[in-house]
Write a structure and sequence with these properties.
The chain is an alpha+beta fold and 379 residues long. 50% of the residues lie in helices and 16% in strands. A hairpin with a 5-residue loop joins strand 6 and strand 7.
């Protein structure tokens, strides 16, 4: 597998790096956090990203998208990860829009995806109900009513759920929590009667929300895909989102590593740069090896989506397990090698560790994905 980017991809990377470095440096995340910004990201920046084609980079041209691939989306996500850019790219494109792209009917796709591509619609996915990622552990019920369905239950960790114009809610029409069969996906507008949204903020300063659904009524037309077979849509959506998250995490750990190496070359003790100490050289070498191994896996996983290969689910779990491990290692080592200043809020390296911790646990940690890989492989 070639690790080289094409000429067009190199141009996209350079454009993305320059744009994000100028408009969304790390201090922008700090500003949003410290000002308790009610949105949690810049809508102006999101509009500018949409004008560049990034909000709909993998959406078809007929829906206003750029019709590029996940390899290109991964490039943008990696650059976002380098500056910890707060955007709704993950919640809106990778989670919400993907559900519509894979299983939405003509009306849903026509009405919503074009608005996503223009940066006008924010979407979210309400799946998780407990402390850990468990896609089929859904207790939220969807009861058939005269005109549609009535949704009742609770959701947590809904990224950008407090500002989403519409949220894809995963509910159960039959079966018990933990069972794959019996799930369904519904589009729920933000002003739906019976829907209560409580914003929460994660340790890295990013958005999340808790949803309370008290008999929220939706029409039959709100269903995405076949009711009762929601897992057939949910699984590929989560695979694509997981791989996209890994691409963003790759940017985060690569930037943390490069900042650490730069610090090792400039910080002096006993009259010499601390990077000249053999013990620190060895630790930096381990970090480099893990980052480059992670890069290879992420690139292969992104290309597997574009090539419609059958091993996408396996690669999603391989990539997430590896990136979770790498995020833990690099996050810890970067802070430790910066010494005392590494744990202060004034030093930016600590923000990379916090982002790495959240990314590590989002959509399943390393243990979850190792177990999933084993199950998919028939172990």
């Amino acid at each position: 597998m070639s690790l080289a980017l094409s000429e067009e991809q190199e141009l996209l990377r350079n454009t993305a790096r320059e744009f994000i470095a100028e408009h969304s440096p790390v201090k922008e995340l700090r500003r949003l956090r410290d000002s308790n910004d009610p949105v949690g990201f810049s809508r102006e920046l999101w509009s500018q990203m949409a004008e560049l084609g990034w909000a709909g980079i993998v959406l078809p041209e007929e829906h206003g998208g750029a019709d590029l691939g996940y390899a290109e989306l991964g490039i943008v996500l990696e650059e976002c990860g380098r500056t910890l850019a707060a955007t709704p790219l993950f919640s809106t494109l990778l989670l919400g829009a993907n559900a519509l792209l894979l299983a939405g009917d003509g009306t849903q796709r026509k009405e919503i995806l074009a608005r996503v591509a223009k940066g006008e619609a924010i979407l979210a996915l309400a799946l998780q109900e407990g402390a850990h990622h468990a896609p089929y552990q859904v207790a939220t019920r969807a009861e058939a009513s005269r005109d549609g369905y009535k949704l009742t239950g609770k959701k947590t960790f809904v990224q950008d759920g407090h500002v989403a114009d519409q949220t894809v809610v995963v509910a159960r029409v039959s079966g018990k929590p933990g069972e794959r069969d019996g799930l369904a996906l519904f589009l729920v507008p933000k002003n739906a009667r019976g829907l209560q949204v409580t914003r929460t903020v994660m340790v890295d300063g990013r958005n999340a929300a808790q949803l309370q659904l008290d008999g929220v009524e939706v029409d039959r037309s709100a269903a995405i895909g076949t009711v009762g077979r929601g897992a057939d849509v949910l699984d590929p959506v989560l695979d694509r989102a997981t791989i996209g998250l890994c691409a963003e995490t790759l940017g985060t750990v690569a930037e943390a590593f490069e900042r650490t190496v730069s610090y090792l070359k400039t910080r002096k003790q006993f009259g010499v740069a601390i990077g000249s100490f053999q013990a620190l050289k060895h630790r930096a070498a381990v970090m480099f090896t893990e980052v480059e191994l992670s890069r290879s896996i992420v690139l292969d996983a992104l290309r597997a989506i574009d090539e419609k290969r059958p091993d996408v689910p396996l690669l999603a779990s391989v990539a997430k397990a590896r990136l979770s491990d790498t995020a833990f290692l690099v996050g810890n080592e970067a802070v430790q090698m910066h010494g005392g200043i590494g744990v202060t809020d004034e030093e930016e390296i600590g923000l990379f560790l916090k982002r790495a911790r959240v990314a590590e646990l989002t959509l399943g940690d390393a243990a979850y994905h190792r177990a999933r890989f084993a199950a998919l492989s028939g172990f």
